Amino acid sequence: MAFAASAAVLLLGMRFVLAAIFSRLIQRDGFKRNLAVIGVGQQLDRLTAAIAQNSSVPVRVAGIYSAGENAASRQIEQGQFGGVEDLIRDVRNNLVDDVAIALPWSRDSEIETLVMKLRELPVNVYLVSDLVGFRLRLRSAPDHFGGLPVSELVGKPMSGWDAAIKAAEDYILASLILVAITPLLLLIAVLIKLGSPGPILFRQKRVGFNNEVFSVMKFRTMYHGEPPSDRVVQAKQGDPRITPLGRILRRWSLDELPQFLNVLNGTMSLVGPRPHAIDHNDEFARRTKSYFARHRVKPGITGLAQVKGFRGETDTEEKLEGRVRNDIYYVDNWSPLLDMSILIQTVIVCIVGKNAH
Predict the structure, then answer these.
(1) Which of 14, 232, 298, 350 is most buried as measured by Cβ atoms within 10 A of its Cβ?
(2) Contacts within 8 Å (CB) and 24+ apart, 73-80
C-alpha cells in the first residue's frame, strides 16, 4: 500500500514538473517545430497572427513561401523564403518540420497540385481552414457521415454516452444527497412554518431545456400574500420582501435544496446554466447575443457562471454577458470532471456567500 501510494504521488508529481518545464521550453524558438507556410492574403495573415499571439503553441513560422514556382515571398525573422521548389529543397535539408497550405479553398486545383508534390516529402502537410474557420470552430464530423469531407460547426451537447453518464451522475448523486440532507430539509420546513404564515415551498415558472417551461421548487424566503406583480423582480440586497429566516437561507443558498427534487423528476440537472423566470429570460435574450444557446442542456442547481462570480442579481450588462459566456462555455465543453469541479467550488462559494441576496 505504501509503494502504491508513493508511486502514484511521485508519478503525478513528475508529470506536473515535466509539464511545467515543457511549457517553458516551448516558448523558446529553439524548442519549437519549424512551420513553413504556403499562402496568400487574409488566410496567411490570420494564421501567422494567431501563431504570434499564442506563445503556448510549440510552432514557429520558419518561412512563408509563394505558391508560384519562381515567385519570392516574405521572410519572417530568420526563416527561409522562396517558391515551391525552394520549399522542397528546404524540407529535404531538414529545415522544415511541418507545412501549412493557407490558400483560399476556391483554388482547389492549385491546392491539389501542391499536395501531390509535397506528398513525396518526409514532412507533415496541413490545410489551413478557409476564412470561416477563423471565425467559427471546426471539428471533425462524426463517424455516421462515413468519411465525407464535412466539418462540424455545432454539435448536440451531451449526446450518446455523454448523455448516459450525465443522467447517471444526476440521479445517483441527487438521490444520495437527498437522503443525507433529509433531516436538514425537515428542520428548515418547520422553521419556515413557524416563522411566517404561508406555504413551505415556493414554485415559480422557469425556462429550461429546449426553451420548455417548468416549475422550479425552492424554500419560501419571502413574506406570503404580497400583491401579484406583472413582472418578476430579482431580489436585491436588503430587500424588504425577504423574511429574517429567508435571509439566512439565501445567504447559504439553502433555499435551493428542494431543487434536488427537480433533478429527480428530470426537469433539472445538478450542474448546468441556472434557469431564469420567463420574463427575465425574454429580457436577457434581447440584451445578449446567443443567449438561447444555454438552453441546449438542462438547467442546473449550480453552474459554471455561479462559481465564477456571476451569481445573484444581473443588474449590469457586464454581469449578464459574463453569466451567458460561462454558461455557453459549459455547454460546449462539458465533462464529468468539469461537473465535479463545479460542485466542489459551489460548496466553497456557498460558504463565502458572495452575491447571495
Answers:
(1) 298
(2) 76/48, 77/29, 79/36, 80/36
